[in-house]
Amino acid sequence: MTTTLPASHAFDRAIALQPLTANLFSGATSDDYQNMVGPFGGVTAATLLNAVLQHPERIGEPVSLTINFAGPVQPGAFEIEATPLRTNRSTQHWLLLQRQGGEVVTSGTAFFATRRETWSEQQESMPAAPAADSLPQQIRQERSWFQHYDFRYVTGLFHPKEQIKEGREGTESLLWTRDNPPRPLDFASLTALGDVFAPRIFHRRQRFTPAGTVSLTHYFHADAAQLAASGDRPLLGQARATRMHNNYSDQVAHLWSEDGVLLLTSTQVAYYKE
């Protein structure tokens, strides 16, 4: 099964891949999504997932994705190896490796499955929030990738210039977000949106701190039809940390559609320095 994504949006250009040989794809970093060190991690994760989405042997849709950022991705070309480790009747397990100069810079695993209609229930309700269009768009210019997302904060805005006393703020953020300009939601864009939250240490201390994601795992709760139903409308995102200890912090995040359907749960671990 092969999925072809449009190339008109900056996001689609950033995650574009060309097949080389069996299980191997080539791509290049995009200046549009640069972060402090290398590309925005959400776009890197989406690019690795895209290798599976485009793979001719792929069955089903993503249920989980784990990405490990082993080293900085340098500007320029890279290769992604997407290997189906095992395919069962309705499930499929993948190994993902991103290389530059012969070295692995990012690794990952993905689990795909063909979902069957069964009993279902949503335990995590969407928090109450004002409509996205009633909130101001947060404009930040520090990193190029910020400009490609629409951020509208409900609570938990990171605002170091206001010099808020350390300890006054917690680690939770609640905000509406989507691609900028708007783009119809799919698994690749949802993957990137799951990583748009700033490191929780930023919010806890209200100042920039050297920090970055080491490993993230996404759990996809929706199928392609449910994502398509969201169109290009904003998603409500909530993120918080549970503990920061000796240079490492976790993060737990959720993304809901406007009508309250939980689309994604994400967990990650990030390093930070004093």
From TrEMBL:
SUPFAM superfamilies: Thioesterase/thiol ester dehydrase-isomerase. Residues 129-271 form the Acyl-CoA thioesterase-like C-terminal domain. It holds the Pfam family 4HBT_3C. Residues 34-112 form the Acyl-CoA thioesterase-like N-terminal HotDog domain. This is Thioesterase family protein.
